[in-house]
Amino acid sequence: MPDHDRLAEQFERHRPHMRAVAYRMLGSHAESEDAVQETWIRLSRSDADEVANLAGWLTTVIGRICLNILRSRAARPEDPVGVHLPDVVVGQEPSNGPEDEALLSDSVSLALLIVLDTLAPAERVSFVLHDMFHLPFDEIAAVVGKTPAAARKLASRGRRRVQEEREADSGGDFATRRTLVNAFFAAARNGDLDGLVAVLDPDVELRADGGPALAAATASIRGARPVAGRASLFRQGGVAVFPVLVNGAPGALVTRDGAPTSVMGFSVRGGRITRIQILLDPERVGAVDFAAFTA
């Protein structure tokens, strides 16, 4: 087998790992694919025979690429209302059981990705590489251009922010989460304001991202009654809700007159919904293969 073909074959074996690293750092499917492709270009132009640990080399390189993307992103103006949701991962919902718990523990929640978006680029890269992929700090230091001690501090700052989110989304097992989500939609369809308030945390936050095409729909709303009032749209004709996994947790896919309109994720704590994330951006919602979930 020619050396180039052998190298490409080895790279493909590591592609899922690199995509996972990039998605956790960037929260964007398109940018993650770009980062993976750029990693391949750098590998193909390097002296691969000098690479003793290909997996480590690839992780380091894609980490640097993602850091550059994050820094470029940070230099761009923010959305006027400050609401941006990461790209979602939508999957079929399995039956309740031990496998659901494994799926939840292995997934990166939408709420966690939102918190990662608030970290400085070097903090995010250091935290993701160390806490999610167990890279040692001396290797992380080479990625972020800091000393190992400085990389450790960066990861620690990121960890504190992430821990706050985990406390806000500590709602127990899969069945509990799905029961609460189902109760939310049942109350919304029935116009039961008190029933909605009952399943919502008093300080619940709803974040909706309409993207450039639906900027008017982009909003951040806090409080059980204001959020419950927003749920009245589910009483409109032609609206259908399908249970799906959103980044590994019970969520919903919403259509109107058969056309996809949104994907919704939920955070849960203490038997109530603490956060609702709604992706309304037509371009990104349209990239989801809805036929697989509505057939």
Automatic annotation (TrEMBL):
PANTHER family, per database record: ECF RNA POLYMERASE SIGMA FACTOR SIGI-RELATED, SIGMA 19 FACTOR
GO MF, one example: sigma factor activity
Species classification: Bacteria, Bacillati, Actinomycetota, Actinomycetes, Kitasatosporales
RNA polymerase sigma-70 region domain residues: 11-74
Domain RNA polymerase sigma factor 70 region 4 type stretches: 115-161
Subunit composition and interactions: Interacts transiently with the RNA polymerase catalytic core formed by RpoA, RpoB, RpoC and RpoZ (2 alpha, 1 beta, 1 beta' and 1 omega subunit) to form the RNA polymerase holoenzyme that can initiate transcription.
InterPro entries, sorted: ECF_Sigma-70_Domain, NTF2-like_dom_sf, RNA_pol_sigma-70_dom, RNA_pol_sigma70_r2, RNA_pol_sigma70_r4_t2, RNA_pol_sigma_r2, RNA_pol_sigma_r3/r4-like, WH-like_DNA-bd_sf
Record keyword DNA repair present: no
Keywords: Sigma factor, Transcription, Transcription regulation
Family stated for the protein in its record: Belongs to the sigma-70 factor family. ECF subfamily.
A Pfam family recorded for this sequence: Sigma70_r4_2
Organism listed in the record: Kitasatospora xanthocidica
Gene Ontology annotations of biological process type: DNA-templated transcription initiation
Protein name as it appears in the record: Sigma-70 family RNA polymerase sigma factor
Transcription recorded as keyword: yes
